[in-house]
Amino acid sequence: MTERRRPRRSLTRKSAGALADWSVPRQLRGAPDKTKAAESAMSRGLRPRLEQADKVGTSICPYCAVGCAQLIYAKDGKPIHVEGDPRSPINQGTLCPKGAATFGLMLSPQRLDHCLHRAPGAGEWRRVTLDWAMDRIAHLAKRTRDEGYVARLPDGTRLNHTLSIGSLGGATLDNEENYLIKKLFSGGLGMVFLENQARV
């Protein structure tokens, strides 16, 4: 019988302890120090989440072309928190849900930090170097462009264009990057189909 009663006594003690630590009864009794009246054992042990940061850097949100400024808090060279920069006239310290997820994007174990290649007809991806991937992309882009390149019409009208390759830009590209893309792809490679994800 006594063994069965022990858990009840322990539960009663825990309940009494939780009630004694609960701030509402102290506030209702009219404790003289309102700050102390609202404290609990748990809140007294809480520390500011950014207290551990030994460095704060600035960045721009990578998700769209708005360009919201961010503060990156780091400890020992690793990010521990990301928030909006209140000094920015664009976002004034706020971030949309995508921007607020930047921290998860940076540290997600599922984020790829290397290049993968799957050969035509292959079922498996293989890891390749960035140099190899860039050379491969340049080679295929040049080959595809050359295969469909039209320098002149039969009547001699100069065209210098290709319909066999196109570009779909992302919303994270700013005006300057889009300007250079237009000059390179349209003027340099003769691409006709240029579009941007921000308009689609």
TrEMBL record:
Keywords: 4Fe-4S, Iron, Iron-sulfur, Metal-binding, Oxidoreductase. The keyword Metal-binding applies. Coiled coil: none annotated. SMART domains: Molybdop_Fe4S4. One of its GO terms (molecular function) is 4 iron, 4 sulfur cluster binding. Residues 1-44 are annotated as: Disordered. It is found in: Cell envelope. Its cofactor is [4Fe-4S] cluster. One of its GO terms (biological process) is anaerobic respiration. It holds the Pfam family Molybdop_Fe4S4. InterPro entries: Mopterin_OxRdtase_4Fe-4S_dom. Residues 54-110 form the 4Fe-4S Mo/W bis-MGD-type domain. GO terms for cellular component: cell envelope. It comes from the Bacteria. The keyword Disulfide bond does not apply. Residues 1-12 have a biased composition (Basic residues). Belongs to the prokaryotic molybdopterin-containing oxidoreductase family. This is 4Fe-4S Mo/W bis-MGD-type domain-containing protein.
